[in-house]
Amino acid sequence: MARPRTFDEDRLLTGAMHVFRRRGFAASSVRDLEEATGMTSGSLYNSYRDKRGLFEAASAHYNRTVLARRIADHA
């Protein structure tokens, strides 16, 4: 049985989203992501499998929080 997550996922994904947005996927290091999210690389990998999984989750978070609001504002 998997342990429940004990971190603020919105905060983590926002931090990762900003790193990927500023640096791009390839230039974003695991250390950059650790610093932005406050989580260790092991915790990030346990939660998102790999950097690509975190990128995909951060992209979905961006779509839900930023793009959806902008679309609603302009609709």
- Output the number of helix runs: 4
Rg is: 13 Å
The helical percent reads: over 70%
Uncertain ranges = none
What is the H level of CATH, i.e. the homologous superfamily? Homeodomain-like
Mean pLDDT: 93
- Write down the overall geometry: globular
Q: Quote the distance from N terminus to C terminus.
A: 44 Å
Q: How many separate domains make up the residues?
A: 1
CATH class category label:
Mainly Alpha
Instruction: Give the CATH architecture.
Output: Orthogonal Bundle
CATH fold label: Arc Repressor Mutant, subunit A
Structural class: mainly alpha
The ordered H/E elements are HHHH
Topology, number of strands = 0
Explain briefly what this protein structure is.
By secondary structure, the protein is an all-alpha fold. The protein has 4 helices and no strands.
What topology emerges from the helices and strands here?
Layout: H1 9-23, H2 30-37, H3 41-48, H4 51-74
Helix pairs in contact: 1-2, 1-4, 3-4
Describe this structure in words.
By secondary structure, the chain is mainly α. It has one domain (10-74): Arc Repressor Mutant, subunit A, CATH 1.10.10.60. It is built from four helices and no strands. It has helices spanning 9-23, 30-37, 41-48, 51-74. Helix 1 (9-23) packs across helix 2 (30-37), helix 1 crosses helix 4 (51-74) and helix 3 (41-48) packs across helix 4 (51-74). The longest helix has 24 residues, at 51-74. The protein starts with 8 loop residues before the first helix and ends with a helix. The model has no long low-confidence stretch (mean pLDDT 93).
